[in-house]
Amino acid sequence: MIYFDNAATTRTDPQVLGAMLPYLQDEFGNPSSVYQLASRARAGISYAREQVASYIGASEGEIIFTGSGSESDNYAIKGVAWALADKGKHIITSGIEHHAVLDACGGLQKQGYEVTALDPDEYGVVAAERVAEAIRDDTILVSIMHSNNEIGTMQPIAEIGAICKQRGVIFHTDAVQSVGKVPLNVDELNVDLLAMSAHKIYGPKGVGALYVRKGTKLTRLIDGGGQEMRRRAGTENVAGIVGMGKAVELLRERGEQDMQRIARLTGQVIEGVVEKVPYCRLTGHPEKRLPNIASFVIRYIEGEGMLLSLDLYGICASSGSACTSGSLDPSHVLLATGCSHEVAHGSLRVSLGRDNTQADVDILLAALPGFVERLRAMSPLWEDAKKKGLVS
Asked: For residue 161, which phi and psi values (nearest 5 degrees)?
Protein backbone atom coordinates (compact mmCIF):
# COMPACT_ATOMS: atom_id res chain seq x y z
CA MET A 1 0.00 0.00 0.00
CA ILE A 2 1.14 3.50 -0.88
CA TYR A 3 -0.51 6.03 1.42
CA PHE A 4 -1.03 9.52 -0.01
CA ASP A 5 -3.87 10.70 2.26
CA ASN A 6 -1.96 12.15 5.19
CA ALA A 7 -4.19 15.25 5.25
CA ALA A 8 -7.03 12.91 6.24
CA THR A 9 -5.10 11.11 8.96
CA THR A 10 -1.59 9.88 9.68
CA ARG A 11 -0.18 6.60 10.93
CA THR A 12 0.46 6.74 14.68
CA ASP A 13 4.20 6.91 15.16
CA PRO A 14 5.64 3.88 17.01
CA GLN A 15 7.30 6.20 19.54
CA VAL A 16 3.93 7.83 20.21
CA LEU A 17 2.35 4.43 20.75
CA GLY A 18 5.19 3.53 23.11
CA ALA A 19 4.58 6.66 25.17
CA MET A 20 0.84 5.89 25.36
CA LEU A 21 0.98 2.22 26.33
CA PRO A 22 1.82 2.67 30.04
CA TYR A 23 -1.29 4.85 30.46
CA LEU A 24 -3.43 2.17 28.83
CA GLN A 25 -2.07 -0.51 31.16
CA ASP A 26 -0.32 0.07 34.49
CA GLU A 27 -0.74 3.86 34.78
CA PHE A 28 -4.52 3.75 34.34
CA GLY A 29 -5.48 6.07 37.21
CA ASN A 30 -8.09 8.80 37.00
CA PRO A 31 -6.10 12.06 37.14
CA SER A 32 -8.78 13.73 39.28
CA SER A 33 -8.14 11.38 42.22
CA VAL A 34 -5.61 12.03 45.01
CA TYR A 35 -3.53 8.84 45.32
CA GLN A 36 -0.15 8.23 43.66
CA LEU A 37 -1.54 6.26 40.70
CA ALA A 38 -3.75 9.24 39.88
CA SER A 39 -0.95 11.76 40.39
CA ARG A 40 1.21 9.94 37.84
CA ALA A 41 -1.60 10.20 35.28
CA ARG A 42 -2.00 13.86 36.16
CA ALA A 43 1.72 14.39 35.68
CA GLY A 44 1.51 12.83 32.22
CA ILE A 45 -1.17 15.33 31.22
CA SER A 46 0.81 18.24 32.66
CA TYR A 47 3.91 17.27 30.71
CA ALA A 48 1.92 16.95 27.47
CA ARG A 49 0.37 20.37 28.10
CA GLU A 50 3.85 21.81 28.47
CA GLN A 51 4.99 20.13 25.23
CA VAL A 52 2.05 21.46 23.20
CA ALA A 53 2.20 24.96 24.69
CA SER A 54 5.92 25.30 24.10
CA TYR A 55 5.59 24.21 20.49
CA ILE A 56 3.27 27.11 19.58
CA GLY A 57 4.74 29.73 21.92
CA ALA A 58 1.93 29.61 24.48
CA SER A 59 1.81 29.15 28.23
CA GLU A 60 0.58 25.88 29.77
CA GLY A 61 -2.56 27.48 31.18
CA GLU A 62 -3.62 28.49 27.68
CA ILE A 63 -3.92 24.90 26.39
CA ILE A 64 -7.18 22.96 26.74
CA PHE A 65 -7.21 19.33 25.63
CA THR A 66 -10.30 18.27 23.68
CA GLY A 67 -11.59 15.20 21.87
CA SER A 68 -10.70 16.38 18.33
CA GLY A 69 -9.87 19.32 16.12
CA SER A 70 -13.57 19.60 15.31
CA GLU A 71 -14.42 19.93 18.99
CA SER A 72 -11.73 22.58 19.36
CA ASP A 73 -13.26 24.58 16.52
CA ASN A 74 -16.76 24.22 17.95
CA TYR A 75 -15.60 25.20 21.43
CA ALA A 76 -13.82 28.29 20.12
CA ILE A 77 -16.68 29.53 17.95
CA LYS A 78 -19.66 28.70 20.16
CA GLY A 79 -17.79 29.51 23.35
CA VAL A 80 -16.94 33.03 22.21
CA ALA A 81 -20.37 33.60 20.66
CA TRP A 82 -22.19 32.63 23.85
CA ALA A 83 -19.81 34.54 26.10
CA LEU A 84 -20.05 37.76 24.09
CA ALA A 85 -23.71 37.64 23.03
CA ASP A 86 -24.41 40.85 24.96
CA LYS A 87 -21.73 42.67 22.95
CA GLY A 88 -22.89 41.56 19.51
CA LYS A 89 -23.95 38.62 17.37
CA HIS A 90 -21.98 39.08 14.16
CA ILE A 91 -19.35 36.51 13.13
CA ILE A 92 -17.02 36.58 10.13
CA THR A 93 -15.65 33.44 8.49
CA SER A 94 -14.91 32.24 4.94
CA GLY A 95 -16.59 29.97 2.44
CA ILE A 96 -13.67 27.52 2.38
CA GLU A 97 -13.55 26.59 6.05
CA HIS A 98 -13.71 23.03 7.34
CA HIS A 99 -17.27 21.91 8.05
CA ALA A 100 -16.47 21.99 11.77
CA VAL A 101 -16.35 25.77 11.45
CA LEU A 102 -19.07 26.23 8.83
CA ASP A 103 -21.57 23.99 10.62
CA ALA A 104 -20.80 25.55 14.00
CA CYS A 105 -21.52 28.97 12.50
CA GLY A 106 -24.64 27.57 10.86
CA GLY A 107 -25.89 26.35 14.22
CA LEU A 108 -25.36 29.79 15.71
CA GLN A 109 -27.35 31.36 12.90
CA LYS A 110 -30.34 29.33 14.09
CA GLN A 111 -29.82 30.97 17.49
CA GLY A 112 -30.06 34.48 16.03
CA TYR A 113 -26.42 35.16 15.18
CA GLU A 114 -25.47 36.70 11.83
CA VAL A 115 -22.60 35.12 9.87
CA THR A 116 -20.68 36.72 7.01
CA ALA A 117 -18.86 34.08 4.92
CA LEU A 118 -16.21 35.77 2.77
CA ASP A 119 -15.37 34.43 -0.67
CA PRO A 120 -11.71 33.70 -1.47
CA ASP A 121 -9.96 34.51 -4.72
CA GLU A 122 -9.33 31.87 -7.39
CA TYR A 123 -6.38 30.52 -5.41
CA GLY A 124 -8.35 30.15 -2.19
CA VAL A 125 -6.84 33.20 -0.47
CA VAL A 126 -9.06 35.29 1.82
CA ALA A 127 -7.69 38.82 1.59
CA ALA A 128 -7.09 40.62 4.88
CA GLU A 129 -8.68 43.71 3.36
CA ARG A 130 -11.93 41.78 2.89
CA VAL A 131 -11.94 40.90 6.58
CA ALA A 132 -11.31 44.52 7.56
CA GLU A 133 -14.20 45.70 5.37
CA ALA A 134 -16.56 43.11 6.88
CA ILE A 135 -15.92 43.99 10.53
CA ARG A 136 -18.79 45.92 12.14
CA ASP A 137 -19.46 47.41 15.54
CA ASP A 138 -21.30 44.22 16.55
CA THR A 139 -18.66 41.80 15.23
CA ILE A 140 -17.47 39.58 18.08
CA LEU A 141 -15.47 36.88 16.27
CA VAL A 142 -13.46 36.25 13.12
CA SER A 143 -12.65 32.63 12.21
CA ILE A 144 -10.32 32.06 9.25
CA MET A 145 -8.38 28.81 8.82
CA HIS A 146 -4.59 28.90 8.78
CA SER A 147 -4.38 26.61 5.74
CA ASN A 148 -6.99 24.81 3.71
CA ASN A 149 -7.32 21.08 4.16
CA GLU A 150 -8.27 20.42 0.51
CA ILE A 151 -6.15 22.71 -1.64
CA GLY A 152 -3.40 23.58 0.85
CA THR A 153 -3.60 27.36 0.46
CA MET A 154 -2.23 29.29 3.43
CA GLN A 155 -3.99 32.43 4.60
CA PRO A 156 -2.49 35.80 5.69
CA ILE A 157 -3.27 34.99 9.32
CA ALA A 158 -0.82 37.37 10.98
CA GLU A 159 -2.19 40.27 8.91
CA ILE A 160 -5.80 39.33 9.64
CA GLY A 161 -4.96 38.90 13.31
CA ALA A 162 -3.39 42.36 13.48
CA ILE A 163 -6.57 43.86 12.04
CA CYS A 164 -8.72 42.00 14.57
CA LYS A 165 -6.50 43.10 17.44
CA GLN A 166 -6.71 46.73 16.33
CA ARG A 167 -10.51 46.52 16.05
CA GLY A 168 -10.98 44.65 19.33
CA VAL A 169 -12.39 41.47 17.74
CA ILE A 170 -11.56 37.94 18.90
CA PHE A 171 -9.69 35.93 16.24
CA HIS A 172 -9.80 32.14 15.88
CA THR A 173 -7.87 30.03 13.40
CA ASP A 174 -8.23 26.36 12.53
CA ALA A 175 -4.60 25.24 12.30
CA VAL A 176 -5.32 21.51 12.22
CA GLN A 177 -3.61 21.03 8.84
CA SER A 178 -0.76 23.46 9.52
CA VAL A 179 0.71 22.07 12.73
CA GLY A 180 3.93 20.26 11.93
CA LYS A 181 4.08 21.52 8.36
CA VAL A 182 5.00 25.17 8.91
CA PRO A 183 6.25 27.09 11.98
CA LEU A 184 3.47 28.37 14.25
CA ASN A 185 3.72 30.96 17.00
CA VAL A 186 0.51 32.33 18.49
CA ASP A 187 1.96 35.75 19.25
CA GLU A 188 3.42 36.19 15.77
CA LEU A 189 0.10 35.07 14.27
CA ASN A 190 -1.91 37.50 16.46
CA VAL A 191 -4.49 34.80 17.24
CA ASP A 192 -6.66 34.47 20.33
CA LEU A 193 -7.73 30.88 19.68
CA LEU A 194 -6.03 28.12 17.69
CA ALA A 195 -7.31 24.58 17.05
CA MET A 196 -5.08 21.51 16.76
CA SER A 197 -5.57 17.76 16.27
CA ALA A 198 -3.29 14.86 17.23
CA HIS A 199 -4.07 12.42 14.44
CA LYS A 200 -2.83 14.83 11.75
CA ILE A 201 0.66 14.82 13.29
CA TYR A 202 1.27 11.07 13.78
CA GLY A 203 -0.57 11.02 17.09
CA PRO A 204 -3.71 9.11 18.09
CA LYS A 205 -7.26 9.80 16.99
CA GLY A 206 -9.72 11.11 19.57
CA VAL A 207 -7.65 13.95 21.02
CA GLY A 208 -7.13 17.58 20.09
CA ALA A 209 -6.19 20.85 21.72
CA LEU A 210 -7.41 24.42 21.78
CA TYR A 211 -5.15 27.36 22.50
CA VAL A 212 -7.04 30.09 24.35
CA ARG A 213 -5.18 33.35 24.89
CA LYS A 214 -5.24 34.44 28.52
CA GLY A 215 -8.19 36.77 29.12
CA THR A 216 -10.30 35.49 26.23
CA LYS A 217 -13.90 35.01 27.36
CA LEU A 218 -15.20 31.54 26.56
CA THR A 219 -18.37 29.76 27.71
CA ARG A 220 -17.92 26.03 28.29
CA LEU A 221 -19.05 23.69 25.55
CA ILE A 222 -19.23 20.60 27.79
CA ASP A 223 -20.57 20.91 31.35
CA GLY A 224 -19.95 18.49 34.19
CA GLY A 225 -16.79 18.10 36.25
CA GLY A 226 -13.91 20.45 36.81
CA GLN A 227 -11.39 18.93 34.39
CA GLU A 228 -9.13 21.01 32.14
CA MET A 229 -9.02 23.92 34.55
CA ARG A 230 -12.84 23.80 34.75
CA ARG A 231 -13.08 24.59 31.02
CA ARG A 232 -13.86 21.17 29.54
CA ALA A 233 -15.69 18.57 31.63
CA GLY A 234 -15.11 14.82 31.30
CA THR A 235 -12.43 12.40 32.51
CA GLU A 236 -9.35 13.08 30.44
CA ASN A 237 -8.14 10.75 27.70
CA VAL A 238 -4.80 10.42 29.46
CA ALA A 239 -3.14 8.07 26.98
CA GLY A 240 -4.32 10.14 24.02
CA ILE A 241 -3.12 13.39 25.58
CA VAL A 242 0.27 11.86 26.39
CA GLY A 243 0.40 10.63 22.79
CA MET A 244 -0.31 14.10 21.46
CA GLY A 245 2.46 15.52 23.60
CA LYS A 246 4.90 12.91 22.29
CA ALA A 247 3.83 13.59 18.69
CA VAL A 248 4.56 17.29 19.19
CA GLU A 249 7.93 16.43 20.75
CA LEU A 250 8.81 14.41 17.63
CA LEU A 251 7.81 17.37 15.45
CA ARG A 252 10.26 19.52 17.36
CA GLU A 253 13.02 16.94 16.91
CA ARG A 254 12.54 15.99 13.27
CA GLY A 255 9.73 18.08 11.80
CA GLU A 256 11.87 20.53 9.82
CA GLN A 257 13.97 17.75 8.31
CA ASP A 258 10.85 15.74 7.44
CA MET A 259 9.12 18.67 5.78
CA GLN A 260 12.12 19.58 3.62
CA ARG A 261 12.10 16.07 2.18
CA ILE A 262 8.30 15.98 1.90
CA ALA A 263 8.24 19.38 0.17
CA ARG A 264 10.69 18.11 -2.42
CA LEU A 265 8.56 15.04 -3.13
CA THR A 266 5.37 17.13 -3.24
CA GLY A 267 6.99 19.40 -5.80
CA GLN A 268 7.74 16.36 -7.95
CA VAL A 269 4.11 15.23 -7.71
CA ILE A 270 2.84 18.66 -8.77
CA GLU A 271 5.26 18.95 -11.67
CA GLY A 272 4.75 15.36 -12.81
CA VAL A 273 0.94 15.32 -12.70
CA VAL A 274 0.55 18.64 -14.52
CA GLU A 275 3.07 17.52 -17.16
CA LYS A 276 1.82 13.96 -17.69
CA VAL A 277 -1.97 14.39 -17.41
CA PRO A 278 -3.66 16.49 -20.11
CA TYR A 279 -6.43 18.94 -19.16
CA CYS A 280 -5.31 19.05 -15.55
CA ARG A 281 -4.41 22.00 -13.35
CA LEU A 282 -3.14 22.60 -9.86
CA THR A 283 -5.67 24.01 -7.39
CA GLY A 284 -4.81 26.35 -4.57
CA HIS A 285 -2.08 28.98 -4.50
CA PRO A 286 1.03 27.96 -6.47
CA GLU A 287 3.39 29.24 -3.78
CA LYS A 288 1.51 30.12 -0.57
CA ARG A 289 0.56 26.52 0.17
CA LEU A 290 1.38 23.74 2.59
CA PRO A 291 4.47 21.76 1.57
CA ASN A 292 2.72 18.38 1.75
CA ILE A 293 -0.51 18.87 -0.25
CA ALA A 294 -0.78 18.61 -4.03
CA SER A 295 -4.34 19.15 -5.26
CA PHE A 296 -5.65 19.08 -8.81
CA VAL A 297 -8.76 19.16 -10.93
CA ILE A 298 -8.61 16.70 -13.80
CA ARG A 299 -11.25 17.45 -16.40
CA TYR A 300 -13.69 15.05 -18.05
CA ILE A 301 -13.61 12.32 -15.39
CA GLU A 302 -15.16 11.70 -11.99
CA GLY A 303 -12.84 11.86 -8.99
CA GLU A 304 -14.49 8.84 -7.39
CA GLY A 305 -13.60 6.62 -10.35
CA MET A 306 -10.04 7.87 -10.19
CA LEU A 307 -9.78 7.00 -6.48
CA LEU A 308 -11.16 3.51 -7.06
CA SER A 309 -8.65 2.93 -9.86
CA LEU A 310 -5.79 4.10 -7.66
CA ASP A 311 -7.03 1.92 -4.82
CA LEU A 312 -6.97 -1.18 -7.04
CA TYR A 313 -3.32 -0.31 -7.66
CA GLY A 314 -2.67 -0.02 -3.92
CA ILE A 315 -2.56 3.78 -3.81
CA CYS A 316 -4.61 5.71 -1.23
CA ALA A 317 -5.52 9.29 -2.16
CA SER A 318 -8.50 11.61 -1.77
CA SER A 319 -11.02 13.55 -3.83
CA GLY A 320 -11.76 16.63 -1.80
CA SER A 321 -11.57 16.54 2.00
CA ALA A 322 -11.73 13.35 4.03
CA CYS A 323 -14.95 14.36 5.75
CA THR A 324 -16.82 14.74 2.46
CA SER A 325 -15.09 12.21 0.19
CA GLY A 326 -17.98 9.77 0.68
CA SER A 327 -20.39 12.33 -0.77
CA LEU A 328 -21.22 12.82 -4.44
CA ASP A 329 -21.46 16.58 -3.92
CA PRO A 330 -18.57 18.60 -5.36
CA SER A 331 -16.13 20.25 -2.97
CA HIS A 332 -17.48 23.46 -1.45
CA VAL A 333 -13.89 24.73 -1.41
CA LEU A 334 -13.43 24.32 -5.16
CA LEU A 335 -16.84 25.84 -5.85
CA ALA A 336 -15.91 28.85 -3.70
CA THR A 337 -12.75 29.38 -5.77
CA GLY A 338 -14.79 29.54 -8.98
CA CYS A 339 -14.72 25.94 -10.23
CA SER A 340 -17.84 24.72 -12.01
CA HIS A 341 -19.64 21.67 -10.61
CA GLU A 342 -18.42 19.58 -13.55
CA VAL A 343 -14.77 20.50 -13.07
CA ALA A 344 -14.92 20.22 -9.27
CA HIS A 345 -16.12 16.62 -9.57
CA GLY A 346 -12.72 15.69 -11.02
CA SER A 347 -10.69 16.68 -7.97
CA LEU A 348 -7.68 14.77 -6.69
CA ARG A 349 -5.76 15.48 -3.47
CA VAL A 350 -2.38 13.85 -2.86
CA SER A 351 -1.08 14.57 0.65
CA LEU A 352 2.34 13.27 1.64
CA GLY A 353 3.77 12.30 5.01
CA ARG A 354 6.98 11.20 6.68
CA ASP A 355 6.62 7.60 5.47
CA ASN A 356 6.43 8.45 1.77
CA THR A 357 9.42 7.74 -0.46
CA GLN A 358 10.74 8.62 -3.88
CA ALA A 359 9.56 5.21 -5.08
CA ASP A 360 6.00 6.06 -3.99
CA VAL A 361 6.03 9.22 -6.09
CA ASP A 362 7.48 7.41 -9.09
CA ILE A 363 4.77 4.73 -8.94
CA LEU A 364 1.99 7.33 -8.71
CA LEU A 365 3.31 9.31 -11.68
CA ALA A 366 3.68 6.14 -13.72
CA ALA A 367 0.18 4.87 -12.94
CA LEU A 368 -2.03 7.97 -12.93
CA PRO A 369 -1.90 8.95 -16.65
CA GLY A 370 -3.05 5.49 -17.71
CA PHE A 371 -5.93 5.50 -15.24
CA VAL A 372 -7.07 8.91 -16.46
CA GLU A 373 -6.91 7.84 -20.10
CA ARG A 374 -9.00 4.73 -19.46
CA LEU A 375 -11.58 6.59 -17.41
CA ARG A 376 -11.93 9.28 -20.07
CA ALA A 377 -12.49 6.61 -22.70
CA MET A 378 -15.61 5.62 -20.74
CA SER A 379 -16.74 9.14 -19.87
CA PRO A 380 -19.64 10.88 -21.65
CA LEU A 381 -18.02 14.17 -20.60
CA TRP A 382 -14.95 13.30 -22.69
CA GLU A 383 -17.04 12.30 -25.69
CA ASP A 384 -19.05 15.49 -25.47
CA ALA A 385 -15.86 17.57 -25.22
CA LYS A 386 -14.46 15.88 -28.35
CA LYS A 387 -17.66 16.58 -30.29
CA LYS A 388 -17.44 20.24 -29.32
CA GLY A 389 -13.78 20.40 -30.31
CA LEU A 390 -12.64 21.23 -26.79
CA VAL A 391 -10.11 18.38 -26.73
CA SER A 392 -8.02 16.58 -29.30
From this structure: -60, -40
The range of the structural domain enclosing residue 22 comes to 12-251
Query: Within a domain: residue 2?
Result: no
134-178 residue pLDDT tens: 999 999 999 999 999 999 999 999 999 999 999 999 999 999 999
Q: What is the pLDDT of residues 270-319, one digit of tens each?
A: 999 999 999 999 999 999 999 999 999 999 998 889 999 999 999 999 98
The reply to whether 162 and 90 lie within a common domain is yes
- Which active-site residues does the annotation give? 323
Q: What is the CATH number of the domain that holds 356?
A: 3.90.1150.10
Q: What is the pLDDT of residue 322?
A: 54
Q: Using an 8 Å Cβ cutoff, are 96 and 148 in contact?
A: yes
pLDDT in tens, 173-227: 999 999 999 999 999 999 999 999 999 999 999 999 999 999 999 999 999 999 9
pTM over 0.90: yes
If pLDDT is split at 50, 70 and 90, which confidence band does 320 have?
Answer: low
